[in-house]
Design goal:
The chain is of the alpha+beta class and about 200 residues long. It contains five helices and ten strands, in the order H-H-H-E-E-H-H-E-E-E-E-E-E-E-E. Helix 4 (about 75-90) crosses helix 5. The relative contact order is 0.17.
């Protein structure tokens, strides 16, 4: 009975398009492709694995390990990342795991952001919005970590903060570019440009 229930659930998942606003249709083929990418990339450093979903701060004078950056966690990346984690910890990669991930993140765009500052409190009151054409969209959920000293301390940048921001995808036109705008306590603005149609 449990097997039949799982099969019916899978048929339902694969026969219904991903909720409105997804970057691409998520079907069985896409899930298997994402899982295969995660498995194939198990030996890659995390920064290399995430590189296709990366945007650097627009005005960064140089691109290196100190450059502020943002990642867009698409459904494809969420599935691939889970598969990579599973295979690295010697667990099996199951279709049911991907189904759960899709359900958990349905209807949202997730951004992971790393910004720098020279104070342990530089992210207090951080403001983050998505801008698309004339529309400004605020996050509905924030997971903000406290800034930590960088390996370059006391040289600049002295502190870095890694946070996650969740936006409703129903408010975003996913066939057009967006800009993620981050403003910190010192009123410094960072901008990260994402050409959504080019993200898997």
């Amino acid at each position: 009975m449990r097997f039949l229930s799982g099969v019916l659930s899978l048929i339902l998942l694969l026969s219904v398009p991903w909720p409105a606003g997804a970057l691409s249709l998520v079907n069985k083929e896409v899930i298997l492709e994402a899982q295969a990418y995660g498995v194939k990339s198990k030996q890659l450093a995390l920064t290399d694995f995430l590189a296709p979903w990366l945007a650097y701060e627009e005005k960064a004078p140089i691109l290196n390990e100190t450059t502020e950056k943002a990642y867009l966690y698409t459904p494809f990346l969420l599935i691939a990342n889970d598969a990579r984690d599973k295979i690295r910890s010697k667990q099996s990669v199951e279709l049911a795991d991907s189904e759960k991930i899709l359900a958990d993140y349905a209807g949202c765009l997730v951004f992971s952001i790393i910004v720098n500052g020279n104070s342990s409190s530089f992210t207090e009151g951080i403001q983050v919005v998505l801008k698309q054409e004339k529309k400004v969209i605020k996050p509905y959920h924030v997971v903000a970590n406290q800034p930590v000293k960088t390996p370059w301390f006391p040289d600049e940048p002295q502190y870095a903060a890694h946070s996650h921001f969740y936006f409703p995808d129903k408010d975003v036109l996913l066939n057009k570019p967006i800009t993620l705008i981050v403003t910190t306590k010192d009123k410094q603005e960072r901008r990260f440009y994402f050409d959504l149609p080019n993200f898997k």
